[in-house]
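Listing 4. Sequential folding, example run.
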Amino acid sequence: MRLIDVKAFLNFHSGTINQDTKLLVDVNGANLEETPYAILSHCWGEEKDEVQYVEMQGLTKMDDDTARERIRQRSGYQKIYKSCERALLHDELSWLWVDTCCINKQSSAELSEAINSMYVWYANSDHCYAFLHDIDARTLPSKRDDKYSHHNGWPKWFSRGWTLQELIAPDNVHFFNQNWEYIGSKQGDADTLELITKISVDVLRKGLRQSDDTHPSVAQIMSWAANRRTTRDEDQAYSLLGLLGVHMPMLYGEGKNAFLRLQLEVMRTINDQSVFAWGWTLADGSGWAPSFLADEPSRFRDCSKINRMTHKALIDALKKHFPKNKVHKMAPREHFKTFDVTNEGILISLVPAT
């Protein structure tokens, strides 16, 4: 994991740094476990406005003062600077991770590793700063606003695919408006965030728990992403990897096939039939679904109330309708919520309807 040395960056900004100082430092293994850091969650602006890896690497070595000043004027630079200020001066943290400049996106191997690791990086951060660039108010919004009509009536941050995991993974998410004024937190404003995102207060405050009794179903997690958008079709799938606890290689250029691959990986890894609970209606204008798998997260829009069922709960439910001596034969544990993908289709053991 590559981190920004906050003190070095602030010294660079003030002009008190030499050319040999590194702004980006690789921190891995045991060192990373012992290194507290802040992390930025934001919406990318135009690519030309962000400070990316190669530029960050060369900032201290630039001889052209005019070129350096142009970089300092970018909105992306200001996000990094304000995050560094917050980290050091308020939260006493010396390290910061920002996706725009801490990943060398020219390396496909590094990009793939980062995307597969990103959920854990956010989860392990001490503080996550969520920068809402289109809010000027000093509180989070509690109702839809027409000025955000292009983003489902809410600020853009709540409509992006990647920010979903950035909201759920960290324990401490602090929200800032366009002036970098603190306007709320995930823990303190969970009720408002549930209204905006449709994610339960329980999940927002406690995270994704791993027991079958409490972990949200695959369909529920997909439903959280139903109204979110990504610049690349592939990122609709890749941005859900950490939330679903699966890993897969990145293949930019595959388009919506990435979401099909994601569902196949979910089926291989997780025993949860709710992955098939998505809906396809004639109102979509596309007729019947051509596949047993969904083509995008929006198909799960109405699945927020679909819960996982344990084998014991299933048995208890069946006992209300069938003789007790037949129930275990109807739903043997080894077949419960299991399925196989074959070259001729998907093999599923289902419980008979009453």
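-- end of first protein; second protein begins --
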Amino acid sequence: MKGLYCRAGESDADPKFVIQETSLPEILGSHLVRVQVKACGLSPVDFKLLDDLGIQRDLIPVGREVAGIVLQVGDKVSFFQPEDEVVGILPLDSPCSGLCDVIEIDEHYLVQKPEKLSSVCVAGALRDGLCAHTALHTHARMAAGHTLLVMDGASSFGLMCIQLACHHGVKVLTTSHSPQKHTFLEQLRPSVVKVIPVYNDSSDLLPVVLEETGGLGVDIVIDSGVRLHEEESEKTKLLPHKHDIISVLGVGGHWVTSHKDLQLDPPDCRFLYLKSASLTFLNHEVWTASSAQQGRYLHILKDIVEKMSAGVLRPQPEEAVPLYEATVTMATVQRHQKKKAVVQL
């Protein structure tokens, strides 16, 4: 059978995605589950993270968010049986590509998929749901009555954050990056308190947030990247400046950032100190990179798919692409020209 792999180029910006022949061992491990893949989500490969963890291969398996049907289980597997529908995320060191017809995965990375939830939907949204749950529950300790500011709420991750927060009685503000996204966010149900357009002038952010919160600031800020310097490039002009985010935080507030190389100057730290505010880095890969909290991770995955099935989380549908378009589609995703893609097998 065939699978999708990445051959790293001379630089991380020049990877090559190739379809390679692969095979599975004849004997199934005791705790492994053999799954027939029905859909696989594609997300960018983080070469720097793989290097930091010492995972170095000539061919890196691509496609890790999978949904499928159990074909066979190992003799010590206790969670699943053949014919069960499952969903999960392959660990970073998995030798399997999620874009194979059949994969092997440890049972502790899988949860049951609700029958009425489509494989394409859950494979496309599972990672964003995991990120939103980790940011709001694990890091920010979200509670009813809190005020939340979500940057770029129309993104797949931002949308998950908004819907999860509204479900728990949180007052949500968000920013929009285009007139079309602004209209989309204003029509969301349950509705957000305020949609702040930043595509014309990002300087409106602070006064609008302070007006909506009575000058107190918000309890939680979740960004989708930040600007470290005042000068703007085409790529970062819609991102908030780090000082703007610190300014909109209230006393005791939580800032959850996706920015991997965030640098804070002493005045920034002083400002956070005066507010007794905290900063947390969102690394969703930590769940599969460490087995220290495996049970908690599985609980989160189960909660996410149940909320999708119940309609609490309603991800924007991803149009599934066939396997023969996977290499071109993955190259587009890796260049960040497309946030997400789903391949249907």
